[in-house]
Every structure is written in C-alpha cells, then in structure tokens.
Amino acid sequence: MKSTFRMKVNGALRAVECEPDETLLDVLRERLRLTGTKRGCDIGVCGTCTVIVDGKARRACKVKIKDVASEQGADRVEREILTIEGLERNGELHPVQQAFVDCGAIQCGFCTPGMVMQALALLNENPRPSRDEIKKAFVGNLCRCTGYEQIFDAVEEAAKRMKP
Hints:
Elements: E1 3-9, E2 12-18, H1 24-31, E3 50-53, E4 56-59, E5 70-71, E6 80-82, H2 95-102, H3 112-125, H4 131-137, H5 149-162
Parallel strand pairs: 1-6
Antiparallel strand pairs: 1-2, 1-5, 3-4, 3-6
C-alpha cells in the first residue's frame, strides 16, 4: 500500500508517494528524477548506485525507502541523503568531482557518480587516507575502463584540495 514518505535529499525536504519496500534507487531515479545515481547490478555489488546517507556510503539499490524516510505525519527526523546532484555549488564542481576530472578518473562515466560518492564518504571519515585505505574503500565499486589507478590518484588529489 502506497504511503507518502518525507526525506531530505541534497538539502531539500522532499515528499514522495511510494510503496514502503521500494528501493531508494527507484525513488531517486523514478520518482525524484535524480538520474545521476546509476542502476547497475541491483544487488549491491557494483557500487554504481552509491549515495551518502547520514554521512555514510550506502548502496541505494539495497536500501528500502521505509528505512531512510519517514511516513507523512510521523515524528521522526529525516535522514540526510546526498546524491551526485547535490555536490555542485553555484556552477562549481565539488573538489572530489574536480579531482576526478583533473586526474583522468572519468572514462565512460557510468561508474563515476558512485565512485565520487564513495570517495567523498571516505574523505569525510578519513581526510588523509593512505593509498591502501583508498584501495580498500573501493573494493565494492567496479570500473571497467580506468584500471582504478586514476581513481585512486583522484582521491589523493581531492584529499589535498579539501584540507580538513
């Protein structure tokens, strides 16, 4: 049975009517038209649908909307959901996005939104990760084009630019 769910997406309070068991990925892409979050495997192993929920990287294909949004009228604080569309400010790319561009970490671009969001979550938790920590953080994000080294370079560059 459909309900109206409230959530905070990219800083704005949003309401959507959907089934409680719909995935966050479906709600973002189909209901809110935030298509930067990509659909890949639908089983949580490729990382293309990575978003940030309350500061942590999450696979949107594995998250049920009822677990991250409140039903209309409920006394629950909305969770903070950040997608790739929420990073740019006033026409300027976020430092992580710019580092990906500058380091050539974008090839076909399909995995890029998930990679950027994974990088941001890592850097928010660990502003100065080692190369090994970066590699470990990206174990669940698949890329067929870059060979990963440019992605790891971009995370290191973004860490320098973001200076905590």
